[in-house]
Amino acid sequence: MNKSMSYLMGVSLTILLSIIKPANAGAIFTFDQPRFSYTNNSWEFAFNFEVLDTVTVTGLGYFSDPRTGMADEHDVALFDSEGNLLATATIDNTNDLFQFFRWERVSDLILPPGNYQVVGVSGSDRYTWSDINVVFDPNISYISYSWRVDNNGTADYLNFTRPDLRYVYGFRGPNVFLGNFREITSVVEPPTILMLVTFIFAFTFIRKK
What stretches pass through the bilayer (predicted)? Predict the structure, then answer.
């Protein structure tokens, strides 16, 4: 194998490894852009979801508006379907940003299939709704959302739901992160890998001729 081929294969492998997304890594939901955002009180916003296949929670997060940022601290908590507290974090503007959410590391927490709720306190910061191209992790299924006026600054379990009327998937504030999400960039689709491998073999064939 000549030096040119070795170099090409090395670069290709580096590119491939840099864009591969580990299984079950990322936020339980994402979107391309926040469509609307507003603040008119301090609220507790809850996202109720079902885990379809076992996942590992590694972080909790809260929405940070790309235009106005984050001014307050946000209490975020994760509960099981019985209201038992599983994990909690306090998010502020010193936390790292992942897409539109600032996040805090929590001890690895395995969630078996079942129903869960993540709750966050909005404070004076903006929340968002009707966002563009909302996508859920394949191991997560949306159930409903809940909200009420906050009266103590603490994320509490909300044992009720709100109907989805005009606010599809509810008001968004808190989020949950899975796996090694801090070291990912994007998902590599099988065609992308195939194209890269094909290119390497084609280049090898041409060099031999």
Answer: 187-206
pLDDT value, residue 21: 44
Q: Is the dihedral of CA 197, 198, 204, 207 positive or negative?
A: negative
Q: What percent of the chain has pLDDT over 90?
A: 64
Burial class (CB in 10 A: 0-12, 13-18, 19+), 27: buried
Neighbour count for residue 171 (Cβ, 10 Å) = 22
| pLDDT tens-digit map of 98-109 | 999 999 999 999
CATH assignment of 24-184? Answer: 2.60.120
- pTM above the 0.70 mark? yes
Order of strands across the sheet with 97-98?
26-27, 174-178, 55-63, 101-111, 97-98
Joined tokens for residue 138: 């394949």
Q: Do residues 74 and 125 lie in contact, with contact meaning Cβ atoms separated by under 8 Å? A: yes
Stretch 86-94: mean pLDDT, rounded?
98
